[in-house]
Amino acid sequence: GDRADGYSVTASAYHGNWTSTDQVPERAVALGLLDRFGFIDPTNGGESHRHAVTFDFAKPLGRWQLEANSYALDYQLDLFSNFTYALDTANGDQFEQFDARKAYGANAQISRATRYAGLPGVLTLGFQSRRDDIGRVGLYLTDERQRLRTIREDAVRRIGLGFHVEQQLQPMEWLRIVAGLRHDRA
């Protein structure tokens, strides 16, 4: 189909691993002790992935036009950093930031051409929903990527709903007037 009467499915995937240079002392680079892309701690860096799939749909319904989409997302970040290297002489100052979440959502709207006081416009009524399932998000004290202590760890489950109505008017080619109302609930 096309944008007015059809559908599409899109999938994407990303996975990355890296070693971070983090903070490198300029004097160590100037003395040749470190390359400017070198590192003090080879365990700084991280791993991340993101997988997503979306479904878009459009269909004319008489004078109205329906547009909808839905999506699912799987995301994870595991990041290891060390900003000081010197405060905790026994364990080092490396810390881990961890985030693992899934999100699901849907959006739908119907719209149609309008004419008020001789001005062309578009009236839109819409709905949005999203569910976030954050299984674990945390901050940990680590040494060589091994957890020593939990600083903070949380889990979040959230559902959000939104409704909106919008009226656009276009009195001139270069001027568009938009008025609307929106209500969100989490």
What would you say this structure looks like, in words?
A 7-stranded antiparallel sheet has the order 1-2-3-4-5-6-7, with no helix packed on it. 3% of the residues lie in helices and 72% in strands. It has 1 helix and 7 strands. The chain is mainly beta and 186 residues long.
Number of helices: 1
Kindly report the spatial arrangement of strands forming the biggest sheet: 1-2-3-4-5-6-7
Distance between the termini: 35 Å
Uncertain spans: none
Number-wise, the strands total 7
Given the helix and strand composition, which structural class is it?
A: mainly beta
Reading the helices and strands in chain order gives: EHEEEEEE
> On the 0-100 scale, what is the average pLDDT?
93
Estimated share of beta-strand residues: over 45%
Overall 3D shape: elongated
How much helical structure, as a percent, in the residues?
under 10%
- Let me know the largest β-sheet: 7 strands, antiparallel
Please state the CA-atom Rg, rounded to the nearest Å.
25 Å
How do you describe this structure in short?
With 186 residues, this protein is mostly beta strands. Helices cover 3% and strands 72% of the residues. The chain is elongated.
